[in-house]
């Protein structure tokens, strides 16, 4: 502490220690926030159609197009250390061969921002329910990005998937025991990434009703244009344009 | 002239403080930074606002730098003087391996 340079080093050195300690305490403080997430997932409609992985492909594959209803209360996942929650819904179905693990494929996902997260175009905006849309229409012009529900509450029905799924074999029709499963990844400001609570852990309760009833993939239907929903990340930087453009549809 | 100027600049940059001042600077660093860390967590937790924690922590650190790094006068209240010069025969006895050298 004799000269100014030594004092700078000393103060900065202790600052890093304090910053790390405070970050560690913040990370640990999330464990005393009780979590009691609950959800109910239901299949709305499932169709299997022929398709190809991309336009120039000769390979024909069967694609499942799953519409679903989701009613979830994940508000307890949001505490002061939550930056964002990546929420996803996957279809889980057993393999046709014994001893092989089950297949899991994501059909829909959303990025739910925490309270302190700055605005981002990829954040999920909850659709306004039809019964409320008339009431809110006047308000909507002012506050376009606001969700009709509080943070972490999802109530969507007859939702189109964002991704239609296929199997590694290319065959999906008549597969049985398919379930829809909700999963998430809590991304904190500081600390560890946390995935779906499958078991109770202290004040954290396991996810209630994270699975749908089992259903079967139907026989392949006529080839129709089954549209998927575009997420907010449908924004892409187009060549020759400065601003990201949201693709229509 | 140039030498004087360079000496002044060097003194200002080095910012030397005395022994008591060093002890005090060390204490102020520990107390201030530690307190700021605790305060940042408590205020952030109470308001459930992590950005507030961040800003309190950074502001407190800036304050600590300001308080400790420059050679403030209160760090130089107990300057250590030189020993008085002695002429001719030394009054100080220096022994090296039993032989008087000083």
What's the short story on this structure?
The complex is a heterodimer of chains A (249) and B (102). Chain A has 249 residues and is of the alpha+beta class.
Explain what the structure shows:
Chain B: This is Signal peptidase complex subunit 1. Chain B: Belongs to the SPCS1 family. The complex is a heterodimer of chains A (about 250) and B (about 100). Chain A is α+β, with helices and mostly antiparallel strands. Chain A folds into two domains: about 1-30; about 35-235, no CATH class. Chain A contains two helices and nine strands; from the N terminus they run αββββαβββββ. Chain A has helices at about 5-30, 130-140; strands spanning about 40-50, 60-75, 80-95, 105-115, 155-160, 180-190, 195, 235, 245. In chain A, the strands form three sheets. In chain A, strands 4-3-6-7 form a four-stranded antiparallel sheet, with no helix packed on it. In chain A, strands 1-2-5 form a three-stranded antiparallel sheet, with no helix packed on it. A two-stranded antiparallel sheet of chain A has the order 8-9. Chain A is elongated, with a radius of gyration of 23 Å. With about 100 residues, chain B is mainly α. Chain B has one domain (about 1-75). Chain B is built from three helices and two strands; from the N terminus they run αααββ. Chain B has a two-stranded antiparallel ribbon. The mean pLDDT of chain B is about 90. The interface of A and B includes residues 7, 18, 21, 116 and 189 of A.
How would you state the average pLDDT of chain B, rounded? 89
Runs of chain A in which pLDDT lies below 50 for 5 or more consecutive residues are 136-143
Shape, per Cα inertia axes of chain A: elongated
Question: Can you give the helix content of chain B as a percent range?
Answer: 55-70%
Radius of gyration of chain B: 23 Å
Q: Name the average pLDDT of chain A.
A: 85
Count of domains of chain A? 2
Strand order of the largest sheet of chain B: 1-2
Biggest interface, which chains?
A-B, 24 and 33 residues
Q: Helix proportion of residues of chain A, in percent?
A: 10-25%
Quaternary status of these chains? heterodimer
Element order of chain A: H for helix, E for strand: HEEEEHEEEEE
For the record, give the distance between the C-alpha atoms at the N and C termini of chain A, rounded to a whole number.
Answer: 65 Å
Give the DSSP E fraction of chain A (strand runs of 2 or more residues).
25-35%
Number of DSSP strand runs of chain B:
2
- Strand arrangement in the largest pleated sheet of chain A: 4-3-6-7
The portion of residues forming beta strands of chain B comes to under 5%
* Largest sheet geometry of chain A: 4 strands, antiparallel
Note the main sheet of chain B.
2 strands, antiparallel
Kindly give the count of domains of chain B: 1
Keywords (chain B): Endoplasmic reticulum, Membrane, Transmembrane, Transmembrane helix
Membrane topology (chain B): Multi-pass membrane protein
Function (chain B): Component of the signal peptidase complex (SPC) which catalyzes the cleavage of N-terminal signal sequences from nascent proteins as they are translocated into the lumen of the endoplasmic reticulum. Dispensable for SPC enzymatic activity.
InterPro entries (chain B): Spc1/SPCS1 (IPR009542)
């Amino acid at each position: 502490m004799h000269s100014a340079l030594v004092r700078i080093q000393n103060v900065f050195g202790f600052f890093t220690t304090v910053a790390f300690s405070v970050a560690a305490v913040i990370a640990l403080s999330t464990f005393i926030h009780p979590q009691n997430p609950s959800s109910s997932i239901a299949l709305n409609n499932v169709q299997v159609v022929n398709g190809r992985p991309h336009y120039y492909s000769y390979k024909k594959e069967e694609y499942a197009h799953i519409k679903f209803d989701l009613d979830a209360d994940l508000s307890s996942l949001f505490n002061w250390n939550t930056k964002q929650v990546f929420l996803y819904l996957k279809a889980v179905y057993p393999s046709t061969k014994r001893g092989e693990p089950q297949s899991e494929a994501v059909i829909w996902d959303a990025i739910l921002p925490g309270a302190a997260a700055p605005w981002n175009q990829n954040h999920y905006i909850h659709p306004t329910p039809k019964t409320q849309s008339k009431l809110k229409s006047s308000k909507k012009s002012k506050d376009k990005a606001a969700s009709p529900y509080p943070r972490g509450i999802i109530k969507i029905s007859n939702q189109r998937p964002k991704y239609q799924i296929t199997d590694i074999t290319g065959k999906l029709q008549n597969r049985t025991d398919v379930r829809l499963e909700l999963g998430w990844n809590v991304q904190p400001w500081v600390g560890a990434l946390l995935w779906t609570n499958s078991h109770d852990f202290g004040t954290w309760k396991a996810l209630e009703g994270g699975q749908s009833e089992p259903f079967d993939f139907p026989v392949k239907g006529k080839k129709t244009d089954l549209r998927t929903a575009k997420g907010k990340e449908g924004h892409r930087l187009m060549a020759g344009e400065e601003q990201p453009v949201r693709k229509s549809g | 002239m140039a030498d004087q100027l360079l000496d002044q600049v060097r003194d200002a940059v080095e910012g030397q403080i005395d022994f008591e001042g060093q002890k005090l600077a060390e204490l102020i660093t520990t107390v201030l930074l530690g307190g700021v860390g605790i305060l940042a967590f408590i205020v952030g937790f109470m308001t459930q606002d992590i950005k507030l924690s961040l800003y309190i922590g950074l502001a407190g650190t800036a304050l600590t730098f300001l308080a400790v790094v420059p050679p403030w006068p209160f760090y130089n209240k107990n300057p250590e003087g030189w020993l008085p010069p002695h002429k001719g025969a030394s009054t100080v006895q220096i022994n090296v391996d039993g032989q008087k050298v000083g």
